[in-house]
Every structure is written in structure tokens, then in C-alpha cells.
């Protein structure tokens, strides 16, 4: 008798597992159940469909050979039966059945299984805001919502929009609305930075400046308190400080695992809200597996459980679950949270832990900040990347890498390399020696990932002393808080001159890098010198020399002007 395998959930992990297990067990009866009428689509592509980069929603549901992944495709091409518009109501583990409801007819039936897999995904967080049920308030939860949003915009019904939530989806949707359609877009974030908990403030500030430069209005440290309605439609979003008129509201306040079906069946659910699985993607019931956004997995750096809502992870987990359902031993050990997003002409990515997250997890963490070229400095078209490497001073273990750069594959290549190394528990020495393919059109001879590790090595062994950018910005906003500190700018005089004129020669000292050895005696001994250059490398060399000649009251500004210019500040001289 053919083995009956039921998979609940038909977006990413479910279809992957279904097709994989059918290849391994051609005689098995494999059934996908999903409450939606559309299945197996690229949910991560929704912002790009809304923006117009992806012209037709069917492209998100199509294979690389242009077949739409619908019920016919799964039945005829894959041998998998797909029950769409069908809701799983309950799991009877004792009798090994699933109660389902046909949403078109209301008919309830019971389906037997030998092995069951849950791929129920996640659901958007619904903020308890008055007016949130208005007809023009959307979450990015499925393809139907995306189609409805795009239709509203295409019909000319949206001239102003408010996005609530500054995570990845919020940023992508803000860009999508503004870039192609020219919608006047505002983004509200409860925390004091975008992508909170994912990247640290220097990278977040670079992203924020880029969005503002592209006419996105940001409201940080503000929370949506009310959606003002007229005739069932939201016409404004009110915070404690602002009232924003709007035609469209998108809630992107995060996601939570959809684990209610598992919980009701008595399966273990973790503190994250995700279903508890082992490395074989097996739940607390050995005949039930789970994968995708609905499960919690191990963070291979922190050792803590987390939800990883990425299609890439869901596909890996789905394959491992399928292998084990077919009795082929296979394991998924966890992840490191690799992430990358595009916002206009800037890409931002991260993997592992941010500095803030690392310290919260108990690590003796520090940040190495650098701003290298993305290719050989002499090669036409080279640009700057800003790289932050998070490491543990005590163990020298690398905890995370984050960065911004142009929208090329340069940043992605470094994030990907770091992800592999982090999964292996890499140290600073390992990162110093990661071998990256070198050719001037693709990278500098000293790769940015190696350079970041070199800086971290100097910090870890106390050869370099630095002032964080947060501390520098706070001081520049109010220099009187430390009147015994001055800036030593070692860039070319033409680069330093606007700052000298803006702040005065007694506060912003200009002494070119190649003249420091001859003129160091001109520097004040009674002041702390903040050594400032474009990237930080010359600053470190000057620090070493000044220490040698008795001017040890100095500190390096990491990343230098390359990072500061991309972060922006009111106190910066006008270009």
C-alpha cells in the first residue's frame, strides 16, 4: 500500500519537500494542502512585483522554464496532488488524520496520513491600532494583497502612502512605492533606527540617509497610535508627534510563526512561537515534520533559537524534511541569519550578530569598522563599501559581518563568504586568511573581508584605540562635553579645508599624513587627538607613530570620512 504523505502549507518549504519526497519515493501518495488559491510563489519577490521590476504576478509563480506552479503543474509534472482553497482544521495524532475544510463548498472531511509535514509559514504582526481594519490598510502576507496594492496604484488612487515598520519588508515596500510610481511615501519605525537588531547604527544611518535622499520621509522613534478613518478608509496615520495624510497604509511590523495548528495538536512550540524541531526537522511527534517560517532553528553563533523567515532557508529545511520522511538520514543544523536588501542605489546586508545583539547575548563584543574599495582603487568605476565586523575580544571568535555598498554583487559576495565561515565557528585568524578570488575588476588585492579582520586583530590585541562613531557624533553635536578633545585631520589640505573653516583651526587641526613625521611637534600635548582620514588606515598609522614619539593621548575614528559622508549629519560642511 502506498505511503500517504500530507504536507500542510504550499508556499516554499511545503512544495520543496513534496517534490523532493516524490523523487525519493515515486510510489508515495503526496498531497499538499493550502488555504490559499495560489501556491508555490516567491513571496520575497512581492516588493519587486509592486515596484514593477517584476511585471506580472505569474512570474513569481513560474518555473525557470515558464510553467506556472499551479494544481495542474504539481499533478502532471510532479505527481503531487495539491488541494488549494483548503484549510487544515485539526490534526488527530492518535488516528493519524487531518480534518480539512473546502473553503469553496464548506465541506469538512478527514484525510489519513502515514507521515505529516507542517509548512504553515508565518503571519504578519497585526498592530492593535484603531482603524487598522480600514479597506486601504494592507499587510504583505500573500500574493493577493500585493495584486490589490498594485491595482490601487495603477488606477491612480494612491498619491501618498505610509509604511509602518522599518524592517526589511518596510524598507523594500517604501522603495517600491516611491521609485517607480512616484508615490509620496513616509515610513514610521518605533525604534530609533531602521533594521533594529539586525544592523548597528552606522549601517542603519547610511540606509536612512539614502532613503531620505530619495524622498522617503522617515519618522524614527515614533509609533503609529491611530489610523484616522473616513467612510471605512484610512486617511491619515497619527503618532504622538505627527499626523500623516495618506491614501494607502502598509503594515510591515514583523512576522510571527503560524504554529497554532501544531500547538492545538499538542506538539512542542518554543518560546519564539516557532514549532520545536530537531536537526532532522522532526517535531515532538516522530511522524510529523515541520519546516519554514513556522519552525524555530538554532542560531549557530549565539546558540539561541530564532525564526528565519527566508525562502532560501525554507527550501533547505524542506529538502531535509523530505529526506528524512523518505528514511534518508539528513540534517539541518541551523543558520546565521544571512540577509541583504536593496534600497535605491544602496545595498545593505548582514550575517550573524550585530554588536548590540552580541552584547545582549553576553559576548565581550567589539566592532571593527572599515570603508574599503569594492575593487582595485585604480580600476574604473570602483566604489566604497562600509564593512562592520563584530567579534568577541576574549575568544577572538567572529560573531557577525554587516555592510553597505553599491548595488552590485560585491557586498553579497562578502556576506556569503562570512556566512560559510560563521557556520564553521571562524575566528579572526580564519577571517584574516579567507581566500577570495582576486582580479582588479572584482576586488582589491587586500579583500575587504580580510581588511576588516586585520583591523579587528589590532583592536583585539590593543594595538589600536578607537572612538566609536556614535561617540564621535554625540561629541560633534555638543563639543563642550569634552573641551579637551580636538580633531586631527590627516587628509589632503583641500579635503580638510571646509572643516577647518566650519569649526576653526583650533578645533579641527589639519596636518597632512605625509607631513606628520616632520611636524608632529606642532601638535598640542594637552589635548586628546581624534585622528581623522578617509578610511581609517592612515589614522592608525599616525596613531602608531604618535604613540612612539610620546603623543599617546590620541584615538582613531574608524571608517573615517567615507562612512561619515554616507551617514550624513547636520554639522557636516556643505559639499
Automatic annotation (TrEMBL):
Transmembrane segments: none
Organism: Desulforhopalus singaporensis
Names of the cofactor(s): FAD
Matches recorded under Gene3D superfamilies: FAD/NAD(P)-binding domain, Rhodanese-like domain
UniProt keyword terms in alphabetical order: FAD, Flavoprotein, Oxidoreductase, Redox-active center
Residue ranges of coiled coil: none
Residues covered by the Rhodanese domain: 511-573
Family: Belongs to the class-III pyridine nucleotide-disulfide oxidoreductase family.
Signal peptide limits: none
GO terms of molecular function: oxidoreductase activity
Annotated protein name in UniProt: NADPH-dependent 2,4-dienoyl-CoA reductase, sulfur reductase
Top-level taxon: Bacteria
